[in-house]
Design a protein that fits this description.
Elements: H1 3-16, H2 19-25, H3 28-37, E1 39-43, E2 48-50, E3 58-64, E4 67-72, E5 78-84, E6 89-90, H4 92-97, E7 104-107, E8 111-117, H5 118-127, H6 129-155, H7 158-173, H8 187-194, H9 198-210, E9 214-217, E10 220-223, H10 226-233
Helix pairs in contact: 1-6, 7-10, 8-9
């Protein structure tokens, strides 16, 4: 899926899932139930929003900050599945499937989110066709992303995977005023994402820096040459 299509889905979700839009579409009784049920939750960096195996109690819409979804492997090593940014909703897949969470959501910065209890969310899906439609689009998009991840890990070299993930992280999370990708990752986390040893990730980041593809300031990374990095990672946006 192109970046434009992804942005269109995110914008459509934002237009549908907000108080003003709900007030226009819902009955007075349904809107009142929604307003009374939702609540603001706050998490500090490294706090667990929900844990792998936990029973889902509702959905979370990130209003501020960033988080990550990860899954522990057989040897206890976490595999990062995806990053969550402002405007994203998490927790709905397990809820819709009627199963416990299959991953852990952890705050990577201080996070503010809206929590909506499971029964209210399910009721909204039944009475609001527009919300149901944008949720179908979100689920379809994430299914496609999962397929891309399989290809990403199976068919690309580690060097190509690092190039692609840096481009996608910048696309997903944006940059700060100095041009650095908004989230800072440890070398272990980067190695985790691209499926390699930490030592290999450190070496590759150093090589990218020497080749003037990126600038590195501690854990922060700025892309200097997007064209070369995209060509190296075979990335099409």
């Amino acid at each position: 899926m192109s970046q434009e299509q992804q942005i269109a889905i995110e914008e459509r979700f934002a237009r549908v899932f907000n108080d003003k839009s709900f007030k226009e579409r819902l009955s007075s009784a349904d809107f009142e139930r929604y307003m009374n049920a939702k609540e603001k939750l706050y998490f500090h960096k490294h706090d667990v929003i929900f844990d792998d195996g936990e029973i889902p109690k509702g959905i979370y819409v990130i209003e501020m900050g960033a988080a990550k979804l990860s899954k522990s492997g057989s040897f206890g090593k976490d595999q990062i599945l995806r990053f969550i940014k402002e405007g994203d909703m998490i927790g709905y897949r397990a809820l819709l499937c009627g199963e416990n969470f299959q991953a852990k959501a952890e705050a990577m910065t201080d996070v503010e989110c809206t929590f909506l209890p499971a029964d209210i969310f399910m009721d909204l899906l039944e009475v609001d066709p527009q919300l149901s439609f944008v949720m179908l689009q979100k689920i379809s998009y994430e299914l496609g992303e999962s397929s891309n991840t399989i290809t990403f890990l199976a068919q690309k070299t580690v060097r190509e995977r690092l190039a692609e993930i840096l481009i996608l992280l910048e696309q997903k999370l944006g940059t700060d005023p100095e041009g650095f990708i908004k989230i800072s990752l440890t070398r272990e986390e980067i190695a985790n994402i691209i499926g390699t040893a930490t030592e290999s990730a450190i070496r590759l980041i150093s090589e990218f820096k020497q080749d003037s593809l990126i600038e590195v300031d501690g854990r922060n990374i700025k892309i200097l040459n997007h064209d070369k990095l995209m060509k190296l990672g075979h990335v099409v946006l």
